[in-house]
Amino acid sequence: MSYISPKKPAATCVGCFAWGVLPGRYCRACYTYGQLHDKGECAFCGRFVPVKRGYCRLCWLQASLNAKGHVTVLEPFLRALTHQQLFFAGMHRIRQRGGPLLGRAGGRKGRKPAVAPEQPPLPSRWTQLQLPIATRRDYLRFNRREHADLANPVLLKARRIAGDLGERRGWTRWVANDVDRALVILLSSHAGHDRIRYSELFPVLRRYGLSVERTVEVLGELDLVEDDRIPTFESWLARNLAALAPGIRADVEHWLRTLRDGGPRSRSRSAATVWAYLQAVRPSLLTWSDRYDHLREVTRDDILAVIDDLHGAQRHHTLSVIRSLFRHCKKNRMIFRDPAARLRVGEQPRKLIMPLADADIDGAVSAVSKPLDRLILALAAIHAARPKAIRELQLDDVDLGNRRLTVAGRSRPLDDLTHQVLLAWLTHRRARWPNTANPHLLINQQTAMETGPIGKVHLTEPFRGQAATLERLRVQRQLDEALAVGPDPLHLAAVFGLDPKTAIRYAENARALLVAQAEEQDPASRDEPKGPQTT
Q1: Less CB within 10 Å around the terminal CB: N or C of the chain?
Q2: How far apart are CA 302 and CA 287, in angstroms?
């Protein structure tokens, strides 16, 4: 322990801003913290200081203070930080009144600490108020005649960026004018590098019918916008985990966040997968929360009682999700043993895929009337393209001169029907959005001013309520190929670029359909003896 002169004046720690008599520029805790962790930019306060998992010591102390009495997992509280409470140096090491000394000061293991007499708690006479980070702006009171400052340097730079961005993205005259009006409202009185919150600009832009997305895009180029919206995942997670026991809720929340964000040895999953996992295991978690306080109390019999009432694909999926949950808890040392470790999921029995009826296909054909929808139907029903591959098609993937189309990295010949539908769509696309810079083949009113693909909902909306969906049409095309050419997995893998296991499954399905069709045409063949006949 370093010696501190009693005449040394008090100062502020450079690392955590704690006030007190320090041995140097840092307090003892920050000095040790800096020896154990490398320097980096803090994810909350933005300072370049020693960080652990992306956060400085001051942020970790604030998260620990916010989580006191709730849970011991600090990551959710780190992401929800809004302020930092300053303190005096050494206050976190002072033991509670009457409590045992920690570390070397505790003496030998056999020594029992002296028990201090209990004292009544002091009445609280004041409350420490939290200072807000910044005051909120109210743009709804903006008056162009009184408040507009067209000579503002930030506004001038933003208007230049908006003009250049509009030319590159192919914005229409109306969109460009709306963005210019929005920038005048937001940046007329802007000073310095102050950031504008999304919750501040959204009400005024929505009130005047201005483009929020395009305006945020321009402000993002200047790094002037701060997205303070609550993610949908956070609200959904809080709503679905509210009824669980606190101990179970903490473990399940950590599991779901790891599924979404990924981990050291696990890849991140989509939001739809996380939603399906929670919906499958939530009834069991609610039942266990009525009896237990933690997942470590759940036994093998509890899991068997859940899956015994399920059958088929639902049983298979639920058991897989439960195994994933307890495997994660065992890996992160949240439970002592995995009660689902030796429960066999088993192989899901494969169902026979039946071909679509002609009436179902005719219904899907009659449901599409727009050039875009016709092209989507042709790509799924003729070229067996997945919805993701259809959305990601680029203009460079179309070779009209050589009659070739590249789908998911595989070049395919263009048939007459697809060629005709594709020409109709390109003609409509050029007439409707002549100045768009989007490189994707399929665009709509929203993506014509951007560079990204269209949404999945816009792709599947025309086939909603139909028996012949895009996925069923794709499967039908591959099944027709197997029935027409023969159940040859090598041919299916070469034509559609299928995985070997998938190609074998389609071939086995086609072989079963051909056998059933032969038996229906010749019923007498069922009673014929199989194998050589001897007399």
Answers
A1: C
A2: 10
Give every CB contact of residue 404 below 8 A, 6+ residues apart in sequence.
411, 412, 413, 414
Encoding tokens for residue 353? 């895929």
Residue 488, domain member (yes or no):
no
Q: Is residue 77 in some structural domain?
A: yes
Q: Same domain, yes or no, for 318 and 368?
A: no
Measured CA to CA, the distance from residue 436 to residue 448 in angstroms comes to 6
Shared domain check, 153 and 85: no
Q: Which domain holds residue 276?
A: 232-331
Structure tokens at 142: 């903006």
The reply to whether 214 and 245 lie within a common domain is no
Output the pTM of the full model. 0.61
Q: What percent of the chain has pLDDT over 90?
A: 31
The answer to whether 253 and 237 have CB atoms below 8 angstroms apart is yes
Quick: pLDDT tens for 433-450.
988 889 999 999 888 888
Q: Which residues pair with 163 in a beta bridge?
A: none
> pLDDT tens across 9-30, in order?
888 898 888 888 888 888 888 8
Whether 400 and 423 share a structural domain: yes
Tell me how long the chain is: 535
